[in-house]
Write a structure and sequence with these properties.
The protein has about 350 residues and is α+β, with helices and mostly antiparallel strands. The chain has helices spanning about 25-30, 210, 230-235, 255-270, 295-300, 330-335, and strands at about 5-10, 60-65, 75-85, 90-95, 95-105, 115-125, 135, 145-155, 155-165, 170-180, 240-245, 275-280, 285, 290, 300, 305, 310-315, 320-325.
Amino acid sequence: MRARSDLTFRSGREKIRAMPSRRSLLAAALIMGLVANACAGSDDPVVPDSSSSSAAPSTLAASVASVDLAAGSPQRFSLGIFSSDAEGVKLLTFGQVTFRFAFSGSGSTASDAGPEVTGNYLSAFGMAKGGSTPAFSPPSEARGVYQAEGVVFDQAGVWQVDVTAEIPGSGNQTLSATFPVAEHHALPAPGDRALHTENLTMDSTGVPAAAIDSRALDGAAVPDPELHAMTIAAALDAHQPIVVILATPTFCTSLMCGPEVDAVAALAKRYGDRAVFIHIEIWRNNAKQVINKAAADWLLRNGNLSEPWIYLIGSDGVIKDRWGPLFDPAEVAKELAQLPRMRS
């Protein structure tokens, strides 16, 4: 099931060659404090007028969190906004922002601005959701992205997003970031057939427990064994719907993977009779940078690794929807509730 309320953004320009997908740097910016370069394609950070408020951040930057965007497909677009001051890096949370998209061709200044759309705040699972007013939060207290649904880009190439947000102490500010849109999705996408994957399970032998779930380090138990009970291949052969999350809770650079796996585990407790729930750990050996084959088959494309991702696969083996890097559990629950109960 694809995103709804489709909004198509047209450039009115000649098509250019699709750029390969790349991994979003939203997480690295958050952890390392690289706000000045929050996204490889972002413009220079904004420095608000310090006279407006002593609490105003010294720099602001926007970073596109979405990866694997493609022309012609309705998809979710998400973006994070960072501040940097003497106290460190904080993330803009809560409320809403406004997105305006424009085609930027080969990297020149964007023109032919498209219509405005609203980006709603989407929090990581278990984090504070806040109210209607944007606020800066340390990532230990609240973290998330602003997301718009059903966005369609009419052609491949470099695009620019101008995001307008109410910045505490500074009023409305507009930040810009550029991002690639490819001709086709590099990763499995809605409408594709799911890969017949033999992922690791609790019955797998000859592998460390941490290769099944990275939280099972130093003798710790796998925290959610019910998410490691079946392979995607077996569920497909049984014609069962599947929810699969590909994520590394321990080694995730975005700080989003652990909460997302927890959210899938919570959904499994409520809807375990509607679908098979599977967690695929990214790393077989993080220290040696060895990726599990199942994760590589799904996510390692064009030499880039993008995660976390959540997929909903129908009983017919076709991908119905996908989410990344964050998802709304209520939205997934609504889709799961529409599925018939599986036979025991």
